[in-house]
Amino acid sequence: MPFDESEVLFAEDDPGYQSTLLESGIPPPSLATVRRVERTVGYRGGHTAGPSRQSYTQPHMQPPMQQSMYSRQPYVPQHLHGQQPVHSQQHAYGQQHAYGQQPHLQHRNGGNSDGPAKTGPPHGAPDSRERPPAELLASMVVATKNQRGSAFDKQITSPDWLRMMSDREGANGRQTDQQLCDPQLLMKINELERSLTGVPQTKLDAAYRAMHKYAALPSQCGLHGRGAIGLAHVDFLLGPVRGNLQPGATLRYVDLGSSGGEYSSYIRWRAAGSAGGVRTSGWYFAPGAHGAGQRVAQASDLAVFESGVDMLDQAVIGEFVKRVRGSDGGRDGVDLVVAECCPEHTGPSASLEKQHYATALSQAAVALQALRKGGTFVFKAVEATTPLSAEILFLVHACFERTDIVQSFVSQPTSAERFIVCSRFISGTTSAVHHLLTAMGKIREGNFKLAHLISWTRVSGEKQFVEMVRSANLSVAKTQISALNDVARRVQQQSSTDPPAVGFSEEQLRLAHRCLRQWSLPMADAAQSPRNALG
């Protein structure tokens, strides 16, 4: 907030001022005459920082209420476009944007990494900082740090926290909580979605394509699949993949069910194009029936695990973790776990439990067992407005130093999809993993409708965490409402006789190309290198 020019900061008649002991015969100057400098207090990762050195006086430089501040030096492989890396490129994310500094990404040994990020230009070189336009960043990024310390992962497994409850004991766990989101916004989303149920699919597809500014990204990018591009976008923002690429080392990772191995495709492509000969060693959990991993089976550095069943069987999870950890004798874990949300299920078991809650529980159980100390867990979520979903997220958050929630441009704006990036793994206790697996097993067996995973009273008291989740939910919900209204308007404007328009506009193509250049991704016609394929 700007200073009030009429406010007296300090006057000579103040008793504290008059009683100041002087060691000099020259009295100090009057503070009332000191020039006022407008400053602002930044909000960084859930903490209020000290006064900023920069005066936010221009409209486009107003500090956001919630933002995650980063400094990135995007890596551009030499074989792409002939582009050069941009040094000290700083950007912040939120509804408004400002410059900030990114916490240094963790080292592979899991050591302390709170020092400043060394992404600036060489000493003596000009510091040509250029703020990327907002349309190349993200729809929303919010973040919070784990303030409980490294011992909290053990405390959270105490009886005071671990209170698994059925819907009969606490049915509100599956209902929207106003502490996490405005129920009226969700009702509006449901109303808009119902209004579009009778529209022919061809018209809906045309309206969705025309409404989404970033709809052309998958068709213009040389990477295979929307999942690969989404992970690449998150990597540009937060560096979960690039932060683990060390020259001469091997990036060890787990891909939990991404469609066609799209996450693995991006990870392997990024490592192949990095400097210093980075190798990869991955494990892919193929979802569904046998044959789901055929496309990725060609990769020599990616082991495919096909169980013939989904990932909701404790025995299957145990066998998969055993293979991952058994490859190095169990001494170390992997650097990175990436997970796709809600794999498609068919038949009577296609319930919300399997589609969201149980899948999230099983993915978290794998990550907490497979990661090394200091590792990173990236997964998707489509629902975080109920106490149960927030409890699952909090239990995972408690095992990491930092959690970011990202709404990517690649995601359809009418959906609630968002990426969760958990950085710098502390540890996962046996009790926490057992609790996750037990809850997942009860859901899978169908004899227990989970309403609470841990104490909601405890979780709702974590104000910083709840505020992060609420901020993300409100942002996503408002984006959904705006997008659905746009779709409805476009459907109404479509002629009943003329066929829906196909293809993309010049603006969509232009924006897609700008994003690909900014995010250091290949264009479709530049992706014929074997590095861009899984095989």
TrEMBL record:
EC number(s) on file: 2.1.1.57
Residue ranges of every copy of the Ribosomal RNA methyltransferase FtsJ domain listed in the record: 245-425
Catalytic activity: a 5'-end (N(7)-methyl 5'-triphosphoguanosine)-ribonucleoside in mRNA + S-adenosyl-L-methionine = a 5'-end (N(7)-methyl 5'-triphosphoguanosine)-(2'-O-methyl-ribonucleoside) in mRNA + S-adenosyl-L-homocysteine + H(+)
Acidic residues composition-biased segments: 1-15
Feature: compositional bias, Low complexity: 58-67
Region (Disordered): 1-67, 79-131
InterPro entries attached to this UniProt entry: mRNA_Cap_2O-Ribose_MeTrfase, RNA_MeTrfase_FtsJ_dom, SAM-dependent_MTases_sf
Gene3D superfamilies hit by this protein: 3.40.50.12760
Residues in the signal sequence: none
Keyword tRNA processing: no
Localization terms from the record: Nucleus
Any one Gene Ontology molecular-function term assigned to this protein's record: methyltransferase cap1 activity
Any one of the GO CC terms: nucleus
Keywords per UniProt: Methyltransferase, mRNA capping, mRNA processing, Nucleus, S-adenosyl-L-methionine, Transferase
A single BP term in Gene Ontology: mRNA modification
Primary location recorded for the protein, binned into one broad class: nucleus
Pfam families: FtsJ
Functional note: S-adenosyl-L-methionine-dependent methyltransferase that mediates RNA cap1 2'-O-ribose methylation to the 5'-cap structure of RNAs. Methylates the ribose of the first nucleotide of a m(7)GpppG-capped mRNA to produce m(7)GpppNmp (cap1).
Protein name: Cap-specific mRNA (nucleoside-2'-O-)-methyltransferase 1
Organism (species): Coemansia biformis
